[in-house]
């Protein structure tokens, strides 16, 4: 697992009432017993850690948040978007 | 004449509203008749990096024009709204100013957050602009009891005067307490409701971080609902003991017949069914009504994924088959979520529905959600013979308060 995935799993574990060590990219978030307010706090920590903004809405079933792997993919996409726009700003 | 339980009867002799769809109750009601939506792009402050861009703002509110009292003009935005709504309600009641029996009156005007914009301005001055001092009125503007104090001063009210604070149930709790004071004999007259003005950049950031706001609009009970929309304003009633109102020949608008309150005692954000169900049942029991007698229910209806299903299920539990027969609407679809003040405006709507024989719609209702299958008066209001109404307020923290109104006693 790469750096982004490791950091995201660290954040997830921080918010779990009973942290587990067997979390993989295919683990569904529903298996982690995360409630809506926990997810808001997790998204906040991820945004803060990676300096990105995720327009997540607790009222919607967001495909991007189905599994740990889908969260990692979404974060990576946002990070590359950010660096692309930073490069564009420099150019 | 007293109630069967020996308590005094309480009537409504005035109400006032300041909402995104009207600066008084007449204008607000006219907007509801047109199914007008008060949610629009935020104009009163700079959006900066917010990704939620809409709210139920009151645009062009000028205290020098829209608030009569000079003292309240110096107050906070939330006190301006309270001052204006109270002024409408008090004038409607025809009570003298100052009130002739001051220690027999109460003024309970709550706010979920008090002077939020003043906090923000003061902290920007201190921490960003490095100013040496805050404006001298900062503290008085911030405190959550300043609206009740201001309004109490205006009408010479010297009995119980304070604010309630229970998030989105604030106004309903305030009205319920004034009702209890009057029917138990502590007071004869009460001004009660709430005011809210939390549309600021900082406040929007805190709501945005909770991930419960819709970027598109407030669509209660509709399948496309995706969060609530914040709004601002005030809703205030004048309550009065029945014989007191009759003696002075007041126009009685409605009777406040029931009040129920409960707490889920479970979770800060996820609503439970027992709490809302109990509060509705307690209000019906207090009013001495059978569930089938309620013709119109103004739902809490916040347009969040969870609330609307939970409220629908709680209504079904209390009303059984009648749940499908009565008219239910969330006027938040038009005026947005006024938070603490919501219950005050919605109580006014319930009274107006009785008086006008017309129930307001839930607008923006484009596609039904199978989980919300009651009659939400979709998109257009309609004429209805309304005898009894119920107003629901269910707040964060699971704090529930419900009112039941009936026609003016013959």
Please tell me about this protein's structure:
With 91 residues, chain A is mainly α. Chain A has a single domain, classed as ACP-like (Non-ribosomal Peptide Synthetase Peptidyl Carrier Protein, Chain A). Helices cover 56% and strands 0% of the residues of chain A. Chain A is globular and about 45 Å long. The N and C termini of chain A lie far apart (33 Å). Chain B has 410 residues and is an alpha/beta fold. Chain B folds into two domains: 10-247, Thiolase/Chalcone synthase (Peroxisomal Thiolase, Chain A, domain 1, 3-Layer(aba) Sandwich), CATH 3.40.47; 259-397, Peroxisomal Thiolase, Chain A, domain 1, CATH 3.40.47. Chain B is 34% helix and 19% strand. Chain B contains 14 helices and 14 strands. The model of chain B has no long low-confidence stretch (mean pLDDT 97). Classes of the chains: A mainly alpha (91), B alpha/beta (410).
Topology:
The complex is a heterodimer of chains A (91) and B (410).
Chain A: H1 3-15, H2 36-50, H3 68-90
Chain B: E1 10-18, H1 25-34, E2 40-41, E3 54-55, H2 63-66, H3 70-73, H4 77-93, E4 105-110, H5 116-128, H6 138-142, H7 146-155, E5 161-162, H8 170-183, E6 189-196, H9 201-210, E7 233-241, H10 242-247, E8 254-263, H11 274-287, E9 294-298, H12 305-319, E10 327-329, H13 332-335, H14 342-356, E11 358-359, E12 382-383, E13 388-395, E14 399-406
Parallel strand pairs in B: 4-5, 4-6, 9-10, 9-13
Antiparallel strand pairs in B: 1-7, 1-8, 2-3, 6-7, 8-14, 11-12, 13-14
Helix pairs in contact in B: 4-7, 8-14, 11-12
């Amino acid at each position: 697992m790469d750096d982004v995935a490791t950091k995201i799993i660290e954040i997830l574990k921080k918010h779990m009432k009973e942290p587990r060590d067997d979390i993989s990219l295919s683990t569904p978030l529903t298996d982690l017993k995360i409630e809506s307010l926990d997810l808001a706090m997790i998204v906040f920590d991820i945004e803060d850690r990676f300096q990105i903004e995720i327009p997540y809405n607790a009222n919607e079933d967001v495909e991007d948040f189905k599994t740990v792997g889908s969260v990692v993919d979404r974060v990576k996409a946002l990070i590359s978007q950010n660096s692309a726009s930073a490069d564009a700003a420099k150019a | 004449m007293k109630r069967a339980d020996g308590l005094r009867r309480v009537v409504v002799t005035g109400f006032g509203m300041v909402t995104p769809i009207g600066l008084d109750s007449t204008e607000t009601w006219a907007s509801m008749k047109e199914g007008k939506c008060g949610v629009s792009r935020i104009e009163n402050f700079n959006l900066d990096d917010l990704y939620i861009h809409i709210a139920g703002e009151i645009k062009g509110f000028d205290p020098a024009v829209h608030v009569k009292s000079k003292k309240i003009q110096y107050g906070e935005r939330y006190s301006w709204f309270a001052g204006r709504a109270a002024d409408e309600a008090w004038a409607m009641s025809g009570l003298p100013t100052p009130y002739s029996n001051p220690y027999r009156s109460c003024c309970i005007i709550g706010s979920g957050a008090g002077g939020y914009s003043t906090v923000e301005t003061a902290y920007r001055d201190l921490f960003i602009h490095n100013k040496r001092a805050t404006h001298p009125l900062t503290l008085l503007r911030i405190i959550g009891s300043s609206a009740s104090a201001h309004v109490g001063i205006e009408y010479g009210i010297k009995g119980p005067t304070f604010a309630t604070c229970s998030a989105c149930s604030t106004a309903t709790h305030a009205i319920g307490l004034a009702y209890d004071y009057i029917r138990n004999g502590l007071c004869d007259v009460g001004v009660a409701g709430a005011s809210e003005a939390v549309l600021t950049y900082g406040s929007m950031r805190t709501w945005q971080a909770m991930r419960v706001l819709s970027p598109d609009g407030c669509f209660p009970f509709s399948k496309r609902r995706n969060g609530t929309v914040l709004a601002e304003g005030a809703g205030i009633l004048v309550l009065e003991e029945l014989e007191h109102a009759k003696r002075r020949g007041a126009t009685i608008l409605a009777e406040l017949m029931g009040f129920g309150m409960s707490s889920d005692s479970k979770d800060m954000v996820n609503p439970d069914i027992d709490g809302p169900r109990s509060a509705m049942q307690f209000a019906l029991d207090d009013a001495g009504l059978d569930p089938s007698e309620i013709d119109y229910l103004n739902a809490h209806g916040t347009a969040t994924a969870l609330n609307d299903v939970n409220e629908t299920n709680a209504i079904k539990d209390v009303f059984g088959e009648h749940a499908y027969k009565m008219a239910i609407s969330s006027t938040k679809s038009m005026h947005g979520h006024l938070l603490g003040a919501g219950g005050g405006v919605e109580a006014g709507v319930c009274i107006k529905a009785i008086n006008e024989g017309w129930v307001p719609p839930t607008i923006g209702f484009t596609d039904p959600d199978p989980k919300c299958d009651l009659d939400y008066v979709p998109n257009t209001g309609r004429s209805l013979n309304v005898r009894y109404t119920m107003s629901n307020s269910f707040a964060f923290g699971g704090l529930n308060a419900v009112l039941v109104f009936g026609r003016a006693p013959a």
